[in-house]
Amino acid sequence: MSQRFSEIDLLLNCPRGKFSVDLFNVLHTHFKAWRVVTARCDHVDFFGQEIKEGEAHYFRATGPGVAACDRLTFLSMDRLLWLTFGDNEGLVEFCKSLIESRKAEAARDAQKYREACNRMTLGGDA
């Protein structure tokens, strides 16, 4: 077989839930982040897996309009995360550091906002 992994290998060797989709989302803009949604009708995901109406799956918008999106079943997302991060500890650590720096930046911004609101409430300079 010319492919590195067959579908059976991926099913048997893919560690379910080992990597968080947050690692993947940090590499994209907030507006193109993957999120869990419920299907309103039947779909087929990017890798050809069926998504039935009412089934939860991953979704991300890729442009304007309803049709500009990607969809992945939970199994397909696990496969994608495993293939991306499975043997790449450097990328995992890089993404984790980005997540932590964004959390710290958001905390600093929230603190600045609270301080500005307090100054305005107390009648000080805004």
Task: Describe what is shown at a glance.
This protein has four helices and five strands; from the N terminus they run ααβββββαα. With 126 residues, the protein is an alpha+beta fold. The protein folds into two domains: 1-87, no CATH class; 88-126.
Characteristics of this structure?
2 domains, two-stranded antiparallel sheet, 126 residues, alpha+beta, 4 helices, 3-stranded antiparallel β-sheet
Rounded to the nearest angstrom, the distance between the terminal CA atoms is: 68 Å
Number of domains in the coordinates?
Answer: 2
Mean pLDDT: 82
Percentage of residues in strands: 5-15%
Global shape: flat
Helix content: 40-55%
Oligomer: single chain
Instruction: Flag low-confidence runs.
Output: none
Our count of helices gives 4
Category by helix and strand content: alpha+beta
Largest sheet: 3 strands, antiparallel
Order of helices and strands: HHEEEEEHH
- The main sheet orders its strands as 1-4-5
- Rg over CA atoms: 20 Å
Number-wise, the strands total 5
What does this structure look like?
The chain has 126 residues and is α+β, with helices and mostly antiparallel strands. The chain has two domains: 1-87, no CATH class; 88-126. Helices cover 45% and strands 14% of the residues. Strands 1-4-5 form a three-stranded antiparallel beta sheet. A two-stranded antiparallel ribbon has the order 2-3. The longest helix is centred in the C-terminal third of the chain and has 33 residues, at 89-121. The protein is flat, with a radius of gyration of 20 Å. The mean pLDDT is 82.
